[in-house]
Design goal:
The structure holds 2 protein chains of 2 kinds. By secondary structure, chain A is of the alpha/beta class. In chain A, 35% of the residues lie in helices and 28% in strands. Chain B is globular and about 85 Å long. The chains are: A alpha/beta, B mainly alpha.
Chain lengths: 306, 319
Protein backbone atom coordinates (compact mmCIF):
# COMPACT_ATOMS: atom_id res chain seq x y z
CA UNK A 1 0.00 0.00 0.00
CA UNK A 2 1.30 3.41 -0.89
CA UNK A 3 1.60 5.48 2.27
CA UNK A 4 3.17 8.51 0.64
CA UNK A 5 3.21 11.70 2.61
CA UNK A 6 2.21 14.67 0.49
CA UNK A 7 1.05 18.24 0.92
CA UNK A 8 -1.16 20.40 -1.22
CA UNK A 9 0.67 23.22 -3.01
CA UNK A 10 -1.26 26.16 -4.39
CA UNK A 11 1.00 26.87 -7.39
CA UNK A 12 0.75 25.03 -10.70
CA UNK A 13 3.52 22.43 -10.98
CA UNK A 14 6.49 22.57 -13.34
CA UNK A 15 6.80 18.84 -13.81
CA UNK A 16 4.24 16.15 -13.07
CA UNK A 17 5.49 12.61 -12.69
CA UNK A 18 2.59 10.27 -13.21
CA UNK A 19 2.78 6.58 -12.25
CA UNK A 20 6.24 6.18 -13.71
CA UNK A 21 7.57 2.67 -14.13
CA UNK A 22 11.03 1.66 -15.31
CA UNK A 23 12.41 -1.81 -15.35
CA UNK A 24 15.91 -3.00 -16.27
CA UNK A 25 15.62 -6.70 -16.96
CA UNK A 26 14.02 -8.26 -13.90
CA UNK A 27 14.76 -5.30 -11.68
CA UNK A 28 11.99 -2.79 -11.12
CA UNK A 29 13.91 0.44 -10.65
CA UNK A 30 10.97 2.85 -10.59
CA UNK A 31 7.79 1.47 -9.16
CA UNK A 32 4.73 3.60 -9.83
CA UNK A 33 6.55 6.81 -9.04
CA UNK A 34 4.23 9.80 -8.63
CA UNK A 35 5.01 13.32 -7.54
CA UNK A 36 5.00 16.93 -8.66
CA UNK A 37 7.87 19.34 -8.96
CA UNK A 38 6.75 22.81 -7.97
CA UNK A 39 8.18 26.20 -8.92
CA UNK A 40 11.25 27.00 -6.86
CA UNK A 41 14.00 24.73 -5.66
CA UNK A 42 13.13 21.11 -5.08
CA UNK A 43 15.47 18.71 -3.37
CA UNK A 44 15.45 15.12 -4.58
CA UNK A 45 16.59 12.90 -1.76
CA UNK A 46 17.08 9.20 -1.52
CA UNK A 47 19.64 6.63 -0.51
CA UNK A 48 21.84 4.86 -3.06
CA UNK A 49 19.73 2.67 -5.33
CA UNK A 50 16.57 4.68 -4.67
CA UNK A 51 16.13 5.28 -8.39
CA UNK A 52 17.19 8.94 -8.49
CA UNK A 53 19.60 8.56 -11.41
CA UNK A 54 17.10 6.55 -13.43
CA UNK A 55 14.49 9.20 -12.74
CA UNK A 56 16.87 11.95 -13.90
CA UNK A 57 17.56 10.04 -17.12
CA UNK A 58 13.84 9.73 -17.73
CA UNK A 59 13.34 13.40 -16.91
CA UNK A 60 15.99 14.37 -19.47
CA UNK A 61 14.50 12.02 -22.05
CA UNK A 62 17.58 9.83 -22.27
CA UNK A 63 15.59 6.66 -21.71
CA UNK A 64 11.94 5.89 -22.17
CA UNK A 65 9.66 4.74 -19.36
CA UNK A 66 7.99 1.34 -19.37
CA UNK A 67 4.85 2.92 -18.00
CA UNK A 68 3.48 6.25 -16.86
CA UNK A 69 4.55 9.66 -18.05
CA UNK A 70 6.34 12.90 -17.24
CA UNK A 71 4.63 16.14 -18.18
CA UNK A 72 6.46 19.43 -18.41
CA UNK A 73 4.61 22.67 -17.82
CA UNK A 74 5.58 26.09 -19.01
CA UNK A 75 3.37 28.98 -17.94
CA UNK A 76 0.83 26.46 -16.76
CA UNK A 77 0.52 24.64 -20.09
CA UNK A 78 2.28 21.65 -21.62
CA UNK A 79 2.60 23.42 -24.96
CA UNK A 80 6.18 23.34 -26.28
CA UNK A 81 9.29 25.32 -25.65
CA UNK A 82 10.25 23.71 -22.35
CA UNK A 83 14.00 23.65 -21.99
CA UNK A 84 16.16 21.92 -19.41
CA UNK A 85 19.67 22.75 -18.30
CA UNK A 86 21.53 19.80 -16.88
CA UNK A 87 24.57 19.76 -14.68
CA UNK A 88 25.87 16.24 -14.44
CA UNK A 89 27.45 14.67 -11.40
CA UNK A 90 30.04 13.14 -13.74
CA UNK A 91 32.90 15.36 -14.83
CA UNK A 92 31.32 15.75 -18.29
CA UNK A 93 33.79 18.33 -19.56
CA UNK A 94 35.99 18.55 -22.61
CA UNK A 95 39.43 18.98 -21.04
CA UNK A 96 41.13 20.26 -24.19
CA UNK A 97 38.68 23.15 -24.62
CA UNK A 98 38.96 26.54 -22.99
CA UNK A 99 36.22 27.45 -20.51
CA UNK A 100 34.81 29.98 -22.93
CA UNK A 101 34.71 27.56 -25.86
CA UNK A 102 33.18 24.87 -23.68
CA UNK A 103 30.28 27.04 -22.52
CA UNK A 104 29.77 28.56 -25.96
CA UNK A 105 29.82 25.10 -27.55
CA UNK A 106 27.19 24.00 -25.06
CA UNK A 107 25.00 26.93 -26.08
CA UNK A 108 25.33 25.98 -29.73
CA UNK A 109 24.34 22.41 -28.94
CA UNK A 110 21.22 23.78 -27.33
CA UNK A 111 20.39 25.69 -30.48
CA UNK A 112 21.73 29.16 -29.73
CA UNK A 113 23.24 31.03 -32.68
CA UNK A 114 27.04 31.04 -32.39
CA UNK A 115 27.32 34.77 -31.80
CA UNK A 116 24.70 34.79 -29.04
CA UNK A 117 26.21 31.74 -27.47
CA UNK A 118 29.63 33.31 -27.35
CA UNK A 119 28.27 36.55 -25.89
CA UNK A 120 26.32 34.75 -23.19
CA UNK A 121 29.33 32.59 -22.37
CA UNK A 122 31.45 35.68 -21.75
CA UNK A 123 28.72 37.12 -19.52
CA UNK A 124 28.12 33.95 -17.56
CA UNK A 125 31.79 33.18 -16.97
CA UNK A 126 32.37 36.73 -15.90
CA UNK A 127 29.45 36.57 -13.51
CA UNK A 128 30.56 33.29 -12.03
CA UNK A 129 34.01 34.69 -11.36
CA UNK A 130 35.79 32.82 -14.12
CA UNK A 131 36.62 35.80 -16.28
CA UNK A 132 40.35 35.44 -15.66
CA UNK A 133 40.32 31.73 -16.40
CA UNK A 134 38.00 31.74 -19.38
CA UNK A 135 40.77 31.15 -21.93
CA UNK A 136 42.44 28.41 -19.89
CA UNK A 137 41.75 24.79 -20.72
CA UNK A 138 38.96 23.27 -18.63
CA UNK A 139 41.25 20.33 -17.89
CA UNK A 140 43.44 22.68 -15.84
CA UNK A 141 40.56 23.96 -13.68
CA UNK A 142 40.21 23.20 -9.97
CA UNK A 143 37.18 21.23 -8.73
CA UNK A 144 35.36 24.42 -7.78
CA UNK A 145 36.01 26.00 -11.16
CA UNK A 146 34.83 22.86 -12.94
CA UNK A 147 31.54 22.98 -11.03
CA UNK A 148 31.14 26.64 -11.98
CA UNK A 149 31.83 26.05 -15.64
CA UNK A 150 29.37 23.16 -15.56
CA UNK A 151 26.77 25.46 -14.05
CA UNK A 152 27.51 28.01 -16.78
CA UNK A 153 27.01 25.42 -19.53
CA UNK A 154 23.70 24.42 -17.97
CA UNK A 155 22.57 28.04 -17.91
CA UNK A 156 23.89 29.32 -21.22
CA UNK A 157 20.66 28.70 -23.12
CA UNK A 158 18.57 30.27 -20.33
CA UNK A 159 16.56 27.13 -19.52
CA UNK A 160 13.21 27.03 -17.73
CA UNK A 161 14.25 24.19 -15.53
CA UNK A 162 17.65 23.30 -14.09
CA UNK A 163 18.45 19.75 -13.14
CA UNK A 164 21.51 19.63 -10.93
CA UNK A 165 23.06 16.35 -9.94
CA UNK A 166 25.22 16.74 -6.84
CA UNK A 167 26.31 20.31 -7.67
CA UNK A 168 28.23 20.80 -4.43
CA UNK A 169 30.03 17.49 -4.31
CA UNK A 170 33.80 17.86 -4.06
CA UNK A 171 33.52 21.52 -3.12
CA UNK A 172 35.13 23.07 -0.07
CA UNK A 173 32.77 24.91 2.34
CA UNK A 174 33.22 28.45 0.89
CA UNK A 175 32.78 27.18 -2.69
CA UNK A 176 29.74 25.16 -1.62
CA UNK A 177 28.19 28.20 0.00
CA UNK A 178 28.82 30.28 -3.07
CA UNK A 179 27.31 27.65 -5.34
CA UNK A 180 24.20 27.42 -3.16
CA UNK A 181 23.94 31.20 -3.10
CA UNK A 182 23.96 31.28 -6.88
CA UNK A 183 21.28 28.63 -7.08
CA UNK A 184 19.12 30.42 -4.57
CA UNK A 185 19.62 33.65 -6.43
CA UNK A 186 18.54 32.09 -9.70
CA UNK A 187 15.41 30.65 -8.21
CA UNK A 188 14.41 33.79 -6.34
CA UNK A 189 15.49 36.54 -8.73
CA UNK A 190 15.10 34.92 -12.11
CA UNK A 191 12.30 32.47 -11.43
CA UNK A 192 14.38 29.45 -12.37
CA UNK A 193 12.94 26.14 -11.27
CA UNK A 194 15.61 23.85 -9.95
CA UNK A 195 15.68 20.17 -9.14
CA UNK A 196 18.57 19.42 -6.86
CA UNK A 197 19.50 15.78 -6.60
CA UNK A 198 21.87 15.36 -3.71
CA UNK A 199 23.03 13.22 -0.87
CA UNK A 200 23.86 16.28 1.17
CA UNK A 201 20.89 16.99 3.39
CA UNK A 202 22.49 20.27 4.39
CA UNK A 203 22.14 21.52 0.83
CA UNK A 204 18.45 20.67 0.82
CA UNK A 205 17.90 22.25 4.22
CA UNK A 206 19.78 25.40 3.21
CA UNK A 207 18.15 26.26 -0.09
CA UNK A 208 15.25 24.00 -1.00
CA UNK A 209 11.62 25.05 -0.83
CA UNK A 210 10.31 21.58 -1.54
CA UNK A 211 11.57 18.11 -1.07
CA UNK A 212 10.89 14.78 -2.72
CA UNK A 213 12.04 11.74 -0.82
CA UNK A 214 12.56 8.55 -2.80
CA UNK A 215 13.36 5.01 -1.84
CA UNK A 216 13.10 1.70 -3.70
CA UNK A 217 11.80 3.44 -6.81
CA UNK A 218 8.87 5.06 -5.01
CA UNK A 219 8.16 8.48 -3.62
CA UNK A 220 7.97 8.34 0.16
CA UNK A 221 7.21 11.97 0.75
CA UNK A 222 6.85 15.20 -1.17
CA UNK A 223 5.96 18.73 -0.31
CA UNK A 224 7.20 21.83 1.43
CA UNK A 225 10.22 21.23 3.55
CA UNK A 226 8.75 22.91 6.67
CA UNK A 227 5.52 20.92 6.35
CA UNK A 228 7.48 17.73 6.12
CA UNK A 229 9.48 18.55 9.20
CA UNK A 230 6.45 19.59 11.24
CA UNK A 231 4.45 16.58 10.11
CA UNK A 232 6.77 14.02 11.53
CA UNK A 233 6.26 12.84 15.07
CA UNK A 234 7.53 15.39 17.54
CA UNK A 235 9.67 13.98 20.28
CA UNK A 236 10.35 14.80 23.89
CA UNK A 237 13.62 14.35 25.70
CA UNK A 238 12.76 13.28 29.23
CA UNK A 239 15.26 13.25 32.08
CA UNK A 240 14.44 11.24 35.20
CA UNK A 241 15.81 10.99 38.74
CA UNK A 242 17.32 8.84 39.97
CA UNK A 243 19.07 7.93 36.79
CA UNK A 244 19.90 4.50 38.13
CA UNK A 245 16.31 3.41 37.54
CA UNK A 246 16.03 1.80 34.15
CA UNK A 247 12.73 2.09 32.31
CA UNK A 248 12.15 -0.89 30.09
CA UNK A 249 9.90 -0.51 27.09
CA UNK A 250 9.83 -0.42 23.32
CA UNK A 251 8.09 2.94 23.04
CA UNK A 252 11.06 5.01 24.14
CA UNK A 253 14.78 4.96 23.70
CA UNK A 254 17.37 5.56 26.38
CA UNK A 255 19.75 8.02 24.82
CA UNK A 256 21.91 8.62 27.90
CA UNK A 257 21.93 7.69 31.55
CA UNK A 258 18.47 8.70 32.82
CA UNK A 259 17.53 10.36 29.52
CA UNK A 260 14.79 8.97 27.31
CA UNK A 261 13.56 10.00 23.88
CA UNK A 262 9.87 9.46 23.41
CA UNK A 263 7.27 10.55 20.89
CA UNK A 264 4.52 12.87 22.05
CA UNK A 265 1.88 10.19 21.67
CA UNK A 266 3.81 7.79 23.89
CA UNK A 267 4.75 10.37 26.48
CA UNK A 268 1.75 9.53 28.69
CA UNK A 269 2.79 5.90 28.89
CA UNK A 270 6.32 6.93 29.82
CA UNK A 271 5.08 9.23 32.59
CA UNK A 272 2.98 6.39 34.04
CA UNK A 273 6.01 4.11 33.94
CA UNK A 274 8.14 6.73 35.72
CA UNK A 275 5.59 6.99 38.55
CA UNK A 276 5.16 3.24 38.68
CA UNK A 277 8.91 2.74 39.11
CA UNK A 278 9.11 5.34 41.91
CA UNK A 279 11.11 7.83 39.93
CA UNK A 280 10.25 11.40 39.09
CA UNK A 281 10.62 13.53 36.00
CA UNK A 282 13.39 16.10 36.39
CA UNK A 283 13.16 17.77 33.00
CA UNK A 284 11.21 17.38 29.78
CA UNK A 285 11.88 19.36 26.61
CA UNK A 286 10.83 19.04 22.98
CA UNK A 287 13.46 17.52 20.73
CA UNK A 288 13.98 19.36 17.39
CA UNK A 289 13.39 17.04 14.43
CA UNK A 290 15.95 17.54 11.70
CA UNK A 291 15.80 16.68 8.04
CA UNK A 292 18.35 14.00 8.78
CA UNK A 293 16.00 12.42 11.33
CA UNK A 294 13.16 12.42 8.86
CA UNK A 295 15.28 11.00 6.10
CA UNK A 296 16.65 8.20 8.23
CA UNK A 297 13.26 7.48 9.77
CA UNK A 298 11.33 7.33 6.50
CA UNK A 299 13.94 5.33 4.66
CA UNK A 300 14.37 2.86 7.53
CA UNK A 301 10.59 2.57 8.05
CA UNK A 302 10.07 1.67 4.42
CA UNK A 303 13.00 -0.70 4.38
CA UNK A 304 11.63 -2.46 7.46
CA UNK A 305 8.15 -2.63 5.97
CA UNK A 306 9.61 -4.15 2.85
CA UNK B 1 32.43 38.31 -0.58
CA UNK B 2 29.76 35.80 -1.38
CA UNK B 3 27.04 38.44 -1.45
CA UNK B 4 29.17 40.64 -3.61
CA UNK B 5 29.61 38.03 -6.28
CA UNK B 6 25.88 37.32 -6.24
CA UNK B 7 25.13 41.02 -6.48
CA UNK B 8 27.44 41.28 -9.42
CA UNK B 9 25.68 38.34 -10.96
CA UNK B 10 22.38 40.11 -10.48
CA UNK B 11 23.65 43.02 -12.52
CA UNK B 12 25.02 40.98 -15.34
CA UNK B 13 22.73 38.03 -15.85
CA UNK B 14 20.31 38.57 -18.67
CA UNK B 15 17.62 36.23 -19.90
CA UNK B 16 18.14 35.16 -23.48
CA UNK B 17 15.60 36.20 -26.06
CA UNK B 18 15.80 34.98 -29.61
CA UNK B 19 15.00 32.20 -32.02
CA UNK B 20 16.81 28.94 -31.57
CA UNK B 21 18.40 27.09 -34.47
CA UNK B 22 16.91 23.75 -35.51
CA UNK B 23 18.25 20.77 -33.55
CA UNK B 24 20.48 19.48 -36.36
CA UNK B 25 22.42 22.73 -36.34
CA UNK B 26 24.21 21.45 -33.26
CA UNK B 27 25.72 18.66 -35.37
CA UNK B 28 27.71 21.22 -37.34
CA UNK B 29 29.10 22.63 -34.10
CA UNK B 30 30.09 19.11 -33.03
CA UNK B 31 31.74 18.46 -36.40
CA UNK B 32 33.58 21.79 -36.30
CA UNK B 33 34.87 21.31 -32.77
CA UNK B 34 35.85 17.71 -33.51
CA UNK B 35 37.92 18.81 -36.50
CA UNK B 36 39.52 21.57 -34.43
CA UNK B 37 40.49 19.00 -31.81
CA UNK B 38 42.00 16.81 -34.52
CA UNK B 39 43.77 19.76 -36.06
CA UNK B 40 45.61 20.33 -32.79
CA UNK B 41 47.20 16.87 -32.98
CA UNK B 42 50.58 16.61 -34.68
CA UNK B 43 49.97 12.98 -35.61
CA UNK B 44 46.97 14.03 -37.67
CA UNK B 45 49.11 16.38 -39.72
CA UNK B 46 51.73 13.65 -40.06
CA UNK B 47 49.15 11.26 -41.48
CA UNK B 48 47.67 13.95 -43.67
CA UNK B 49 51.13 14.73 -45.06
CA UNK B 50 51.57 11.05 -45.83
CA UNK B 51 48.37 11.14 -47.87
CA UNK B 52 49.52 14.31 -49.60
CA UNK B 53 52.79 12.67 -50.67
CA UNK B 54 50.80 10.30 -52.87
CA UNK B 55 48.79 13.20 -54.22
CA UNK B 56 51.90 15.24 -54.99
CA UNK B 57 53.51 12.23 -56.66
CA UNK B 58 50.53 11.89 -58.98
CA UNK B 59 50.11 15.63 -59.45
CA UNK B 60 53.71 16.35 -60.46
CA UNK B 61 54.10 12.97 -62.17
CA UNK B 62 51.30 13.85 -64.56
CA UNK B 63 52.68 17.32 -65.02
CA UNK B 64 56.12 15.87 -65.78
CA UNK B 65 54.76 13.55 -68.44
CA UNK B 66 52.92 16.35 -70.19
CA UNK B 67 55.94 18.63 -69.95
CA UNK B 68 58.29 15.99 -71.35
CA UNK B 69 55.85 15.29 -74.14
CA UNK B 70 56.07 18.97 -75.09
CA UNK B 71 59.86 18.85 -75.15
CA UNK B 72 60.30 15.68 -77.17
CA UNK B 73 61.72 15.80 -80.69
CA UNK B 74 61.14 13.42 -83.53
CA UNK B 75 64.64 12.00 -83.20
CA UNK B 76 65.20 8.52 -81.88
CA UNK B 77 67.12 8.35 -78.64
CA UNK B 78 69.52 5.70 -77.46
CA UNK B 79 68.44 3.65 -74.45
CA UNK B 80 71.58 2.18 -72.94
CA UNK B 81 72.48 -0.98 -74.81
CA UNK B 82 68.88 -1.71 -75.84
CA UNK B 83 68.91 0.18 -79.06
CA UNK B 84 66.97 3.29 -80.00
CA UNK B 85 63.43 4.34 -79.25
CA UNK B 86 61.08 7.17 -79.96
CA UNK B 87 60.85 9.34 -76.80
CA UNK B 88 57.13 9.82 -77.40
CA UNK B 89 56.54 6.07 -77.41
CA UNK B 90 58.74 5.73 -74.36
CA UNK B 91 56.74 8.34 -72.45
CA UNK B 92 53.48 6.74 -73.50
CA UNK B 93 54.77 3.38 -72.31
CA UNK B 94 55.73 4.83 -68.94
CA UNK B 95 52.42 6.65 -68.59
CA UNK B 96 50.50 3.48 -69.32
CA UNK B 97 52.68 1.37 -67.06
CA UNK B 98 52.29 3.80 -64.17
CA UNK B 99 48.67 4.44 -65.09
CA UNK B 100 49.25 8.18 -65.03
CA UNK B 101 47.21 8.77 -68.11
CA UNK B 102 43.97 10.11 -66.69
CA UNK B 103 42.22 6.81 -67.28
CA UNK B 104 39.79 5.31 -64.74
CA UNK B 105 42.67 3.09 -63.63
CA UNK B 106 44.67 6.22 -62.67
CA UNK B 107 41.98 7.21 -60.20
CA UNK B 108 41.41 3.66 -59.04
CA UNK B 109 45.11 3.33 -58.15
CA UNK B 110 45.28 6.79 -56.65
CA UNK B 111 42.20 6.24 -54.46
CA UNK B 112 43.54 2.82 -53.43
CA UNK B 113 46.75 4.46 -52.17
CA UNK B 114 44.91 7.33 -50.49
CA UNK B 115 42.48 4.96 -48.82
CA UNK B 116 45.30 3.15 -47.03
CA UNK B 117 46.21 6.41 -45.35
CA UNK B 118 42.55 7.18 -44.82
CA UNK B 119 42.21 4.05 -42.71
CA UNK B 120 45.04 5.24 -40.47
CA UNK B 121 43.46 8.69 -40.27
CA UNK B 122 40.06 7.19 -39.41
CA UNK B 123 41.55 5.00 -36.68
CA UNK B 124 43.22 8.09 -35.27
CA UNK B 125 40.05 10.12 -35.69
CA UNK B 126 37.91 7.38 -34.13
CA UNK B 127 40.10 7.41 -31.06
CA UNK B 128 40.09 11.20 -30.83
CA UNK B 129 36.56 11.97 -31.95
CA UNK B 130 34.63 9.29 -30.10
CA UNK B 131 37.03 7.28 -27.96
CA UNK B 132 38.20 10.28 -25.95
CA UNK B 133 34.63 11.36 -25.22
CA UNK B 134 33.98 7.95 -23.74
CA UNK B 135 37.16 7.62 -21.75
CA UNK B 136 37.16 11.21 -20.50
CA UNK B 137 33.54 11.04 -19.35
CA UNK B 138 32.26 13.71 -21.74
CA UNK B 139 29.24 11.76 -22.93
CA UNK B 140 26.71 13.10 -20.39
CA UNK B 141 27.57 16.56 -21.76
CA UNK B 142 26.18 15.50 -25.13
CA UNK B 143 23.59 12.92 -24.24
CA UNK B 144 21.71 15.06 -21.73
CA UNK B 145 20.52 17.43 -24.45
CA UNK B 146 17.44 17.07 -26.65
CA UNK B 147 18.27 14.61 -29.43
CA UNK B 148 21.73 14.60 -27.93
CA UNK B 149 22.88 11.21 -29.13
CA UNK B 150 21.63 11.58 -32.69
CA UNK B 151 23.12 15.07 -32.84
CA UNK B 152 26.38 13.68 -31.55
CA UNK B 153 26.50 10.79 -34.01
CA UNK B 154 25.57 13.05 -36.91
CA UNK B 155 28.24 15.56 -35.89
CA UNK B 156 30.93 12.91 -35.67
CA UNK B 157 29.79 11.44 -38.97
CA UNK B 158 30.09 14.85 -40.61
CA UNK B 159 33.55 15.36 -39.13
CA UNK B 160 34.76 11.95 -40.35
CA UNK B 161 33.11 12.55 -43.74
CA UNK B 162 35.02 15.80 -44.05
CA UNK B 163 38.25 13.86 -43.49
CA UNK B 164 37.22 11.45 -46.24
CA UNK B 165 36.48 14.44 -48.46
CA UNK B 166 39.93 15.89 -47.77
CA UNK B 167 41.70 12.65 -48.57
CA UNK B 168 39.73 11.06 -51.40
CA UNK B 169 37.41 13.16 -53.59
CA UNK B 170 39.20 16.49 -53.17
CA UNK B 171 42.67 15.37 -54.37
CA UNK B 172 41.09 13.11 -57.00
CA UNK B 173 39.08 15.99 -58.42
CA UNK B 174 42.18 18.22 -58.33
CA UNK B 175 44.02 15.58 -60.37
CA UNK B 176 41.11 15.42 -62.77
CA UNK B 177 41.11 19.20 -63.21
CA UNK B 178 44.88 19.15 -63.69
CA UNK B 179 44.52 16.71 -66.57
CA UNK B 180 41.77 18.89 -68.08
CA UNK B 181 44.10 21.89 -67.94
CA UNK B 182 47.16 20.05 -69.26
CA UNK B 183 45.37 18.06 -71.92
CA UNK B 184 42.23 19.69 -73.21
CA UNK B 185 38.66 20.32 -72.14
CA UNK B 186 37.69 17.42 -74.37
CA UNK B 187 39.05 15.23 -71.60
CA UNK B 188 36.35 16.61 -69.26
CA UNK B 189 33.53 15.61 -71.58
CA UNK B 190 35.19 12.38 -72.64
CA UNK B 191 35.86 11.28 -69.08
CA UNK B 192 32.77 12.64 -67.41
CA UNK B 193 31.85 9.15 -66.27
CA UNK B 194 35.21 8.95 -64.45
CA UNK B 195 34.37 12.16 -62.61
CA UNK B 196 30.99 10.80 -61.56
CA UNK B 197 32.75 7.55 -60.66
CA UNK B 198 35.17 9.41 -58.37
CA UNK B 199 32.23 10.94 -56.53
CA UNK B 200 30.38 7.63 -56.35
CA UNK B 201 33.43 5.75 -55.13
CA UNK B 202 34.09 8.45 -52.53
CA UNK B 203 30.52 8.16 -51.32
CA UNK B 204 30.86 4.39 -51.01
CA UNK B 205 34.09 4.76 -49.07
CA UNK B 206 32.41 7.33 -46.86
CA UNK B 207 29.47 5.09 -46.03
CA UNK B 208 31.49 1.93 -45.99
CA UNK B 209 34.24 3.17 -43.69
CA UNK B 210 32.91 6.03 -41.60
CA UNK B 211 29.82 4.27 -40.23
CA UNK B 212 31.68 1.11 -39.14
CA UNK B 213 34.49 3.23 -37.71
CA UNK B 214 31.98 5.23 -35.69
CA UNK B 215 30.36 2.06 -34.37
CA UNK B 216 33.69 0.44 -33.55
CA UNK B 217 34.84 3.55 -31.71
CA UNK B 218 31.61 3.61 -29.69
CA UNK B 219 31.66 -0.05 -28.81
CA UNK B 220 35.37 -0.82 -28.49
CA UNK B 221 36.32 2.47 -26.83
CA UNK B 222 40.03 1.99 -26.11
CA UNK B 223 42.64 3.02 -28.68
CA UNK B 224 44.33 -0.37 -28.66
CA UNK B 225 41.02 -2.20 -29.13
CA UNK B 226 40.15 -0.06 -32.14
CA UNK B 227 43.58 -0.53 -33.72
CA UNK B 228 43.48 -4.29 -33.15
CA UNK B 229 39.98 -4.61 -34.57
CA UNK B 230 40.70 -2.70 -37.77
CA UNK B 231 44.08 -4.34 -38.21
CA UNK B 232 42.16 -7.61 -38.13
CA UNK B 233 39.63 -6.41 -40.69
CA UNK B 234 42.11 -4.87 -43.11
CA UNK B 235 45.19 -7.05 -42.70
CA UNK B 236 44.54 -10.36 -40.96
CA UNK B 237 41.23 -11.30 -42.60
CA UNK B 238 42.38 -10.33 -46.14
CA UNK B 239 45.56 -12.37 -45.65
CA UNK B 240 43.54 -15.41 -44.54
CA UNK B 241 41.06 -15.02 -47.38
CA UNK B 242 43.89 -14.71 -49.88
CA UNK B 243 45.43 -17.93 -48.61
CA UNK B 244 42.06 -19.66 -48.77
CA UNK B 245 41.31 -18.53 -52.31
CA UNK B 246 44.72 -18.66 -53.93
CA UNK B 247 46.54 -21.43 -52.09
CA UNK B 248 43.73 -23.65 -50.85
CA UNK B 249 41.66 -22.93 -53.98
CA UNK B 250 38.47 -21.96 -52.21
CA UNK B 251 35.79 -20.27 -54.27
CA UNK B 252 36.48 -16.66 -55.24
CA UNK B 253 33.23 -15.74 -53.42
CA UNK B 254 35.19 -16.07 -50.18
CA UNK B 255 36.92 -12.84 -51.07
CA UNK B 256 33.76 -11.02 -50.06
CA UNK B 257 35.03 -11.34 -46.48
CA UNK B 258 37.93 -9.11 -47.49
CA UNK B 259 36.06 -5.89 -46.86
CA UNK B 260 38.69 -3.69 -48.41
CA UNK B 261 38.68 -5.75 -51.60
CA UNK B 262 34.87 -5.42 -51.75
CA UNK B 263 35.17 -1.64 -51.64
CA UNK B 264 37.81 -1.71 -54.37
CA UNK B 265 35.64 -3.90 -56.59
CA UNK B 266 32.74 -1.49 -56.21
CA UNK B 267 35.09 1.41 -56.86
CA UNK B 268 36.22 -0.21 -60.09
CA UNK B 269 32.59 -0.53 -61.12
CA UNK B 270 31.91 3.12 -60.29
CA UNK B 271 34.93 4.32 -62.26
CA UNK B 272 34.48 1.85 -65.08
CA UNK B 273 38.06 0.64 -64.54
CA UNK B 274 39.44 -2.73 -65.50
CA UNK B 275 39.45 -5.07 -62.52
CA UNK B 276 42.73 -6.02 -60.90
CA UNK B 277 43.04 -9.71 -61.65
CA UNK B 278 43.41 -12.15 -58.83
CA UNK B 279 47.03 -13.29 -58.80
CA UNK B 280 46.58 -17.04 -58.74
CA UNK B 281 42.90 -17.02 -59.52
CA UNK B 282 43.50 -16.17 -63.18
CA UNK B 283 40.90 -13.84 -64.49
CA UNK B 284 38.47 -14.59 -61.71
CA UNK B 285 37.30 -11.59 -59.76
CA UNK B 286 34.66 -11.16 -57.11
CA UNK B 287 31.23 -10.39 -58.45
CA UNK B 288 30.37 -6.71 -57.77
CA UNK B 289 26.99 -7.93 -56.51
CA UNK B 290 28.65 -9.92 -53.76
CA UNK B 291 30.82 -6.91 -52.94
CA UNK B 292 27.70 -4.72 -52.84
CA UNK B 293 26.00 -7.28 -50.59
CA UNK B 294 28.90 -7.16 -48.18
CA UNK B 295 28.84 -3.37 -48.14
CA UNK B 296 25.06 -3.33 -47.64
CA UNK B 297 25.32 -5.80 -44.76
CA UNK B 298 28.09 -3.78 -43.10
CA UNK B 299 26.29 -0.45 -43.51
CA UNK B 300 22.96 -1.92 -42.33
CA UNK B 301 24.62 -3.56 -39.36
CA UNK B 302 26.35 -0.30 -38.47
CA UNK B 303 23.12 1.67 -38.78
CA UNK B 304 21.28 -0.90 -36.67
CA UNK B 305 23.86 -0.58 -33.91
CA UNK B 306 23.82 3.20 -34.14
CA UNK B 307 20.03 3.12 -33.93
CA UNK B 308 20.25 0.88 -30.88
CA UNK B 309 22.72 3.27 -29.31
CA UNK B 310 20.33 6.09 -30.03
CA UNK B 311 17.22 4.29 -28.81
CA UNK B 312 18.76 3.08 -25.62
CA UNK B 313 19.84 6.60 -24.89
CA UNK B 314 23.23 6.64 -23.40
CA UNK B 315 23.65 2.99 -22.50
CA UNK B 316 26.37 2.34 -25.06
CA UNK B 317 27.91 5.74 -24.46
CA UNK B 318 27.53 5.76 -20.73
CA UNK B 319 30.58 6.10 -18.60
Amino acid sequence: MDTKLSFQIDQPPVVVVDHLIKQFGEKLVLNDLCFKINPGITGLLGPNGAGKSTFLKLLLGLITPDGGSIQYFRNGTTQGGFSIGYMSEAKAIIPAMSGLDFVSYSGELEGLPRKDSLRRSHELLDCLGLSEARYRQVGEYSAGMVQKVKLAQALVHDPDFLVLDEPTSALDPPAREQMLAYLKFFAKEHGKNILLSTHLLEDVRDICDFVVLMNNGRCLAEGKLENLISSTDAHLLVQIEPSSIKLEGDKWVEVADGEYLVSIENAQTLYKEIIARGAYMRKSRPQQTSLEDIFVKMVSDKTDAK
Amino acid sequence: MQNESVKRFNLEYRPWVGAKNPWWYGSFAIARESLLVLGKRKLFWGLYSLAMIAFLFYFFGQYLFFWLAELQSEEMVKIGGFGRANPGDLLQFLRNALKMDGSPETFRNFIAIESRTLILVLIFAGVNLVGDDLTQGTMPFYSSRPKGIIKYLLGKFLAASFLVFLLIPLPSILLFIEICLLDSWDYLFGSFRTLVGILGYSLLINLGLVLPFLVSAALLRGTINIILFWSGVFFLVPALVLVMVETLKFDIAFRMFDYWYCLERLGEKCLGAQPVLAQAGGDKTLSPWLAALMLAVTVSFSLAILKKIYLTGERAFEN
